[in-house]
Structure formats: C-alpha cells, structure tokens
Write a structure and sequence with these properties.
The complex is a heterodimer of chains A (about 325) and B (about 300).
Chain A: H1 10-25, H2 31-65, H3 69-72, H4 87-92, H5 98-103, H6 113-143, H7 150-160, H8 165-178, H9 185-193, H10 197-208, H11 212-220, H12 225-236, H13 238-254, H14 257-262, H15 271-276, H16 289-323
Helix pairs in contact in A: 1-2, 2-16, 6-9, 6-10, 6-13, 10-13, 13-16
Chain B: H1 21-49, E1 52-53, E2 61-62, H2 66-72, H3 75-109, H4 113-124, H5 127-137, H6 144-151, H7 166-191, H8 195-203, H9 208-236, H10 240-245, H11 257-267, H12 271-296
Antiparallel strand pairs in B: 1-2
Helix pairs in contact in B: 2-12, 3-7, 3-9, 4-7, 5-7, 7-9, 9-12, 11-12
C-alpha cells in the first residue's frame, strides 16, 4: 500500500481517538491533526449509518418471518423476534393445512411454492448455460478468428446495446405468442437464450488477452480453431466466464416484467411473479406479513448464497463491466 | 496483446493468418439468431405496430399517425411522463450523491472487500423482494418505520398510499437497491486517479474537503458522466417496484410510463397504442442520453 492514510481500520481509529483525548489535555495540541481526526470520526459515522440502512431490511425480513402474525398485529417494535414462530415458513412450503394457515393469518390458498422455485431454477439455469456458451462462441469469433466483415458484424452487435430492453418486450411478447409459447418456460427463456451484447463484449475483452504464442504452439501441434476454443481459450478464461455466468444467473432469477407478460398459470410461474401477486391475494384479516417475509427470504436466499461464495469476484468485476 | 484490431484483406503467411470464415460463421450463428430475432426484428415491428390499431384478436389495421395524435391529447400519458420524470430526478439525484459519498468513503477509509460486498448485497435481490420488504417496513399501521414515527410523537405517513409521498418512496426504495452498485462503479473510477495527485495536494496543505472538490470530482467527471447515463437509462424503465406496491395508484400518482404501456397492452389489449407509447419512451431515452453525453463530456478525460 503506497498510501498511508487511506486504509485505517476501526482499531486504528479507536487508538487515534484515545490519542486525541490525551492531546486535548496537553497545552500545545496539534490543531490540524485534531480536526483531521474529527473528520475521520464523522466519515465513519456516515459510513456506518449507510451500512445500517443497507443491512436493516435484510434483518427485518428475517425477524418478521420468525414472528407470528398475531404478534406482528400487536404493534410491537422489538428488534428481536417476539412470539417466535416458524409458521411463516411452514405456509410457504405448504406444510400447514388450510385451516391452520388461516388461523395464523395466512390466506389459506394453496401456493405451489416448490413449483415456482423449480420454474425459477430451470429458467435461470437454462438461460445462463445457453447464453454464456453462445456469447462465448461469438466473442471467440470476434476476437481470435480472421474473417472478412468481422468489424462490421461486430458493430451491428454494438448497435444492439443502444436498444433499451424495455422497448423489445412488447414485440417479443407478440413473437412468443405467434410461436405458441405463451405460458411455457421455453417462452420465458427463449429471448435470452442466444446472447446478450454485454456478455459478448465482456468475454471478447478477455479472449483478446490470451497470448497468441500459446495459440500458435497449439496450431503447430495440429489443433484446429474449434479445438483451440474448447481446449485453450475456455480453460484460460474460466474466471471471467464464471463472472458473466453469475451475473446472468442473477439477472434471470430476478427478472419480473418479462415472465409476468408471458406466464399465466402455475405451469410457468416463476418466483418473482408469484411474489408479486401477493398484494392481490391478501386475506380478509390483513396481509400475512410473516408468511410473505418468509417467502421473500427464501426467494432471495439463492442469490445471497451465490453472492456469499463469489462476493470477491463479483465486487471486483463491477468496475470493469460498467466503465468498459 | 498482439491480436490485430482489423484484418488484412489478404492472408500473409504463417498459420495464424489463415482465413477462418467458415468456422467464424458457425461460431456467430446462435448469437446472430438472437440479435436479429430478439433485438432488430422487435425494433422494426414495434415501430410498425405503433401505426396500427390492434387488439390481438382481429388483424392489425393501419391507422397512420392516429395513435400519436391520441397520445398528444392523452392526459394520462402526459401525467405518466411527468410522474416518470419526477421519479428519475429523485431517484438519480439521491442515488448519485449517496453513491458518491459511499465511494469516496470506501476509498478514503477502508478498501476492504467485505465492506464492498455488504454494500452490494441489496443489488443481489430482485426489485420485487426489495419492494415487498419496504411495503412491510413502511406499512401505515404495522410497519416499523411508521411505528418509529408514532413513538416519536410524529404523524404516521402513508408512504405508499399518500399521493404526495408515493413517488418519493418508490424512488428511495430503488436507491436502496442500486446505491451500492453505483458506488462500486464510481469506486472503480476513483482507483484510476493517481495517488500522486493526492500526495502533492497534501504536501500543499489541502484539506480532505478541498481535495474532494478540486481533485476527485473534476477527475472523476467522465466516469461520473457514464455512470449517470447508465443509471438514468435504467431509471426511466422503472416498473417492478410500482407494479408490486401501488400498481399506479393512488389515482395515477405513481403511474409511470412503463406501467401505462403495460396497462394498455395487457389490460386493454390496445397493442397499437402501447407500441406508440413505447416509441415515445425510446425517443425520450435517446434525447436524454444524447444530452447527458454532451453536457457531461463523458467521452473525454481530463487525466494526463
């Protein structure tokens, strides 16, 4: 670390705080230094406040999902779960009888949560596998193959970045309808299966950086271009490919508007759409907040787990992906 | 990095210069299918549909500019434009400031990966999840937010039910989800500013605040401009949060453009008019992006 002041951890800050206290009792205290430390304290206060704002809703999801509805309706402000109860989770996974569920403030309607979960997994997995693979193929053609018209075709792909996704949704819906794929999982995934311009650009950047010497050695050994793609380029860029795959999976998992357009029944309903329906099926007594927060938590969990495992990779790739 | 950017028309010599056209066509085939069918074709079809009247059941009928004339006289459309702009201004205004503060704090206080991960966590959950959590936290009777207000002796606020509040609330919910992501983009930009500049300033006795305004902000400008453009484009397309929490209400006060488009298409099966609205949104986006690009001079850097 070349810069000394930029990395100060809380322990150092504490030490600086005590030092300041002794300083102030001394007659010739170092004034600019003191002001500087106050600034640090203030900066950390702002930072901690922002972190609390960031984390609190997650905690509140958990806290609410572990509390019974009757306790929630008793207007309590306790930070810990009161009247600890797993009923919310039981309702989400259909482990309660309708009578029991209604008694605990649920709607009693059978929600096929496992079905939605499975649908989400199928859609997000298929999109990720196909989209990343096809994008990688295109990225390979745009970075390592030599052919007439390459730059022109690439600029066409560049152009597609300018089309806002939202604009394509209506015509794409009509196309899916023409194909008879409304209310099917294939209909939900089809438009995203082939590529995204982002994935192509992102991977192309890394493919270009693979040294040509290695490729030439493989060519001399008699390997073809296809073989080089599978045996050389892909293994050498596993890192960036993983990053793209994670981001793709996340986007597919979190998508709402498109699946909302295409799916009409439980056959093709994914988690986000099922959750979004919540406000429309509120029981007479008032919303089943405990059940809902349990459901949102379960819906968010796969992404949070994925994030837990790949946080460093995702966090470090964000700058590149945005500025590029 | 010795891969040539452009290809020589004639192969020179050696194994690398071989013409790969056949393999290349095979490799770009799937992506090209996606590009043509799901990007370019919708672009054309959307513009065509905006000149028709179509309810899906009967064949589309060409009506010329009728949809656009209807749009110009449609008070709900103009209200949607106003509401969307209000949303974008609040959302982007707060988000950029908070993200900038967060990015600078991360750069000056701690570059720990754990800290950056925590900040990014909200971005990992869907808009739907974020919307539902805040629907609960800000519930009029039971939400912890309003209970806190009440316990301090303040009036409860109908965050999602009061016309005056609803857009602000939705804008801030989306700030919560996106501020960490935006902060990381800016953080990456800050890394590009050489340390030596700060060291020189410190030797000259500049304060942290002075350094922020005289060094960080001006040198970050191109990246700030790009981040602004990306965020604004995303912001204009707001739909999920509104659809889940208020569905446009109360009385159209949160009926953003995208929701109005969706209502027209799937509520009233007015696909021609919905397409015209989409074209309007596209045009607004193009104009706003172009203006931002010019104003922020995002393409030019002041470094070096």
């Amino acid at each position: 670390m070349s810069r000394t002041t930029a990395t100060i951890d809380p322990a150092e800050l504490k030490a600086a705080g005590t030092a300041r206290q002794t300083d102030s009792s001394a007659p010739n205290a170092d004034r600019p230094r003191r002001r500087f430390n106050w600034g640090k304290v203030f900066a950390w206060a702002v930072m901690i406040a922002l972190l609390i704002i960031t984390v609190f809703p997650f905690y509140w999801m958990l806290r609410t999902s572990l509390t019974s509805n009757s306790a929630l309706y008793a207007n309590d402000m306790s930070l810990l779960p009161t009247d600890f109860d797993l009923g919310g989770f039981a309702r989400v996974f259909g482990l309660q009888s309708p009578e029991e569920a209604i008694a605990q403030g649920g709607s009693g309607a059978s929600i096929d949560f496992w079905r939605y979960l499975l649908n989400s997994v199928v859609v997000a997995t298929a999109i990720t596998v196909c989209q990343v693979f096809f994008s990688a193929m295109a990225a390979y053609a745009f970075s390592r193959l030599h052919w007439r018209g390459r730059d022109f075709v690439f600029s066409l792909f560049l152009l597609s970045l300018m089309v806002p996704l939202i604009y394509t949704l209506l015509p794409n819906f009509l196309l899916i309808r023409d194909l008879g794929l409304i209310d099917t999982l294939l209909g939900i995934m089809l438009p995203s299966l082939f590529m995204t311009p982002f994935a192509i650009f992102f991977l192309r950047q890394f493919f270009m950086n693979v040294p040509t010497e290695i490729e030439e050695a493989a060519l001399i050994d008699g390997a073809g271009k296809i073989r080089i793609f599978f045996r050389l380029i892909i293994p050498m860029t596993v890192g960036p490919i993983t990053t793209v795959a994670i981001l793709t999976y996340m986007n597919a998992w979190n998508d709402y508007l498109w699946p909302l357009m295409v799916s009409y029944t439980d056959d093709s309903r994914v988690l986000t759409v099922a959750l979004g329906n919540f406000t429309e099926q509120t029981p007479q007594t008032g919303p089943d907040w405990a059940g809902l927060m349990a459901a949102t938590l379960v819906a968010a969990l796969p992404m949070l787990l994925l994030f837990l495992f790949f946080a460093r990779r995702i966090v470090n790739s964000i700058g590149f992906s945005g500025i590029k | 990095m010795s891969v040539p950017k452009t290809i020589h028309p004639l192969p020179v010599s050696g194994p690398r210069q071989k013409d790969d056209t056949k393999i290349a066509l095979l490799f770009i085939l799937p992506a090209s299918i996606g590009l043509v069918i799901f990007y370019f074709w919708p672009l054309v079809r959307g513009v065509w549909l905006s000149f028709t009247s179509w309810d899906i059941l009967t064949p589309a009928r060409f009506v010329g500019l009728a949809n656009y004339q209807q749009m110009l006289q449609d008070p709900v459309f103009w209200n949607a434009v106003r509401v969307t702009l209000l949303y974008v201004v609040i959302n982007i205004g707060v988000q950029i400031v908070v993200a900038l503060v967060l990015a600078v704090l991360m750069q000056r206080l701690s570059r720990s990966v754990i800290l950056r991960s925590v900040v990014l966590a909200p971005y990992m959950v869907s808009n739907v999840v974020a919307a539902l959590v805040f629907l609960w936290i800000l519930d009029f009777q039971l939400g912890i937010g309003n209970q806190l207000l009440a316990s301090m002796g303040l009036d409860r606020i109908g965050f999602f039910t009061n016309e005056a509040w609803v857009i602000t609330t939705i804008a801030l919910v989306n700030v919560w989800r996106h501020m960490g992501y935006t902060a990381l983009l800016l953080f990456a930009g800050l890394q590009a500013i050489p340390d030596t500049v700060y060291e020189a300033a410190r030797v000259d006795g500049a304060s942290e605040l002075r350094m922020f305004f005289s060094i960080t902000l001006p040198l970050l400008r191109p990246i700030l401009g790009l981040v602004l453009i990306i965020s604004v484009i995303g912001s204009f397309q707001v739909f999920d949060t509104v659809a889940v929490t208020t569905n446009g209400g109360p009385v159209d006060s949160s009926r953003v453009l995208q929701l109005y488009i969706y209502d027209n298409a799937f509520g009233q099966f007015n696909f021609g008019y919905a397409s015209a609205l989409s074209v309007a949104l596209l045009v607004i986006l193009l104009v706003v992006t172009f203006l931002q690009y010019r104003v922020t001079r995002a393409g030019q850097t002041d470094l070096n």
